[in-house]
Inverse folding.
């Protein structure tokens, strides 16, 4: 182990100036790349360059290499904690709908995504409704008396429309009277949209 | 421990307790321990930003409003101030407090220039309505750059105090500690610049 007092790298001032020049060169590379393209590989290179720059500063300006190993482990431990934090949250934040059964990922897996394969099922639809529609349409289907969303119960004209029209509204979204419903065609599969409509009809429709 | 009590030993104990039981000067253990906590602070904030950014590719449009030229200029300023900080450390190691103090002054000046440019950017952005409440991207932008700017101010203060001592030939061992902190602030910016400016 190095004597703990010998933190000097033994380098002359010229060495530090050379490192600085390399750092500036790396900056220019990132700037040029960033200016000509924003393709994913360019961004990957830009972050690789940033990591290399940080490593140069750590090694040559901060003299990390001359510290005892346990000091470096303290830093590495902190980095590892941040890494675990990041990886643990990726499913929740980056792929928000990733863990909803048959959520956004299955919608993407079926790009045409216009026909439901199975007959609509109100039971499955209840889950979709609870997850995606409840916030606006509410548990009683009245959308706070139509102030948040369409009121399926009091306004009979809503569910009097044919399935094809309602499914189109759900897929493409709707705007009226300052209220709006987002389009669901990318976030949900055709199956999920048909199931949700089946649930709405059985739950809130006029019983024949 | 082989604590070589040579005449050039900058970390020679001045008081009882100046060395830890590991044989390292207390200040060096403390500065690294402190930086580890800083990694958790900046790392946590940057990780959150990255997660949301990956979920919202459309933020690239908002990131395009940050002024690349100002960010690039400030990167040059910080890298250069790190160079003068390490040169101050180098001089202190050779027992030359006066030269160390001069290099430290350059580093502090670099910090001032950095903050001046940053203040101009903030004024420009806020004037254009790009305030923290505008969107999640701008919240993150002001959080990350603001936290970083506070660290720049803290580093400048520490360097200034250490530099005044060094000019009188006192506590030359502290020059290294303040410089290590300054380099860390530089490293954080090395990542913030591409995260908030270039990648748009």
């Amino acid at each position: 182990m190095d004597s703990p007092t010998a933190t000097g790298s033994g380098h002359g001032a010229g060495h530090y100036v050379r490192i600085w020049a390399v750092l500036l060169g790396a900056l220019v590379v990132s700037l040029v790349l960033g200016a000509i393209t924003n393709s994913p590989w360019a961004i990957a290179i830009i972050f690789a360059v940033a990591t290399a720059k940080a490593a140069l500063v750590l090694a040559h300006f901060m003299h990390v290499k001359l510290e005892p190993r346990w000091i470096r482990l303290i830093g590495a431990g902190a980095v590892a904690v941040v890494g675990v934090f990041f990886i643990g949250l990726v499913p929740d934040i980056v792929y928000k709908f990733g863990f909803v059964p048959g959520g956004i990922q299955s919608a993407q897996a079926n790009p045409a995504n216009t026909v439901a394969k199975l007959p609509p099922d109100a039971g499955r639809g209840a889950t979709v409704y609870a997850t995606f529609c409840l916030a606006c349409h509410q548990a009683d289907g009245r959308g706070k008396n139509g102030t948040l969303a369409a009121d399926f119960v009091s306004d009979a004209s809503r569910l009097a429309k044919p399935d094809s029209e309602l499914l189109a509204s759900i897929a493409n979204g709707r705007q009226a009277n300052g209220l709006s419903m987002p389009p669901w065609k990318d976030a949900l599969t055709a199956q999920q949209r048909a199931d949700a409509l089946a649930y709405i009809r059985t739950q809130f429709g006029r019983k024949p | 421990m082989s604590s070589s009590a040579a005449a050039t030993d900058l970390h020679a104990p001045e008081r009882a307790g100046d060395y830890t039981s590991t044989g390292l000067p207390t200040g060096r253990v403390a500065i690294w321990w402190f930086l580890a906590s800083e990694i958790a602070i900046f790392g946590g904030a940057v990780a959150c930003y990255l997660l949301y950014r990956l979920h919202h590719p459309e933020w690239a449009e908002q990131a395009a409003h940050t002024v690349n030229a100002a960010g690039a200029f400030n990167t040059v300023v910080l890298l250069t101030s790190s160079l003068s900080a390490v040169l101050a450390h180098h001089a202190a190691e050779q027992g030359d407090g006066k030269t160390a103090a001069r290099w430290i002054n350059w580093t502090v000046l670099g910090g001032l220039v950095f903050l001046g440019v940053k203040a101009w950017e903030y004024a420009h952005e806020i004037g254009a309505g790009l305030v923290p409440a505008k969107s999640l991207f701008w919240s993150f932008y002001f959080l990350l750059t603001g936290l970083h700017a506070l660290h720049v101010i803290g580093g400048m203060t520490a360097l200034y105090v250490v530099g005044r001592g060094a000019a009188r030939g006192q506590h030359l061992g502290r020059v290294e500690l303040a410089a290590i902190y300054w380099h860390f602030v530089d490293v954080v910016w090395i990542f913030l610049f591409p995260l908030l400016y270039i990648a748009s």
